[in-house]
Input
Amino acid sequence: MSSHPREHRPVTAMDWAALALGDHSALRTGAPLRAPVYRGAGAPAPAESLSEPLITAPGPAIEDFPSLMDAVAPPPATTASGYKRIPESERVQAAVEAACVAAEARMGKNAEGIVSCLRFSAPAIGVGWRVLFVLVKLYVWLFKVGYWVYERLPKALARFIFGLTLAMFGGTYVVTLAAVEGFHKLGGAKLWGEIVYIYEQVLIVEAASTKDDDRDEDADGIADVDQIAPHELLRRKTVVAMEAITEPDRLQTAVGAFWTAYLARASAVLASLKVMFARTVALALGIAEMLNLPCTRVLAPVIALCLGPKTKHWAPTIVSSMINVIAIIFAWYIQMVISAFYSGLRGGRIAGNAFVDLVSFTKVEILCDSLRDGFCPNAEFLNFFNNKIGGEGLEHVMQFLKERERDKSKILPKLNRVRVGKNKLSSEQQQALKELCSELGLKCET
Output
């Protein structure tokens, strides 16, 4: 048995029917079922909560741990075929010189100031380009490291870390965590498929660009891309990208869906944040309005005396500004306390559910053949609180219970209790299930 929790898929009515008929092929070939069987009396978390995986769609695999030195290293001095590449600093200098020549050709003598400025700042432009290059590569490396770790973590552990972070730092990083959770609640995870497709197309274009760099048609030993003007290089790479992308309509759909969803969700998140901060500002202004008059009576004479006769008219303004600042700080502190309380409850619930999943993941997979060995809990019960079970699904569950009793060798764990949520089944369904449990010698709880 694997030592790591595996991904699960929800149990469907067809799965129950297949199990009832003794067909376990779906369990052997597909992903393990997330059966609604639990140890204890806790009901499953609702589907919209963060107890579900943060990202559920498959993404590109990163086999080896990303190396920082490889990420920030300068481009190689030669191509795969051995053609020489001009150093980055020389290419930047050539681009600056080309810009100067273009300015002189277009503007004539009027471009002398611009040209001299560009040539004087060419070294600084080269350094800035190098710094920008390293920063971009560093951020890409950080993203790859984070994704590499997330790809190998059990998803329950990722949820546990997020819940613990929300519980511990929800009052400190109010805006950031509120934006993250708001984006997730509004369906941000659904964008993952579009992001993966766009990233795959970027990799295809990158591979085509690398192949294009490895060309030396004039046979002078230097790559052709380093010997053409910047505008020609841009045109050439554009053509390479257009040739590499074979499904432009699909890419357009992915980019459009991603951008539209991003704008919609960002607007909704910003709107929710605006409401929260508007509430904070309203509280601060209310406090300031109540304290302004008494504080002005007490502090204005003292401040006016310190300012002198020529500037004493500034005393009420100074007092009012001080009260507003203090009120905003106080209101923000109250908002942090409220956010910390909510984040503690929310994060604790997410972390608690994830921790239970980590500890008892084997108890959730009792329908999986891989758990035949070494799994013998003392007491298990079938929990009908899951919304996906009920109605027609109840017939499959009852048939499953009958089949289980007829052939106990298929599923080893002992089942002695069946728990039913009253709001999930009608009275007739509850009575039918109770009668079946009585026949099978099972205890039925409601």
Remarks:
- The beta strands are 9-10, 33-34, 37-38, 381-383, 417-419, 443-445.
- The first helix runs from residue 13 to 20.
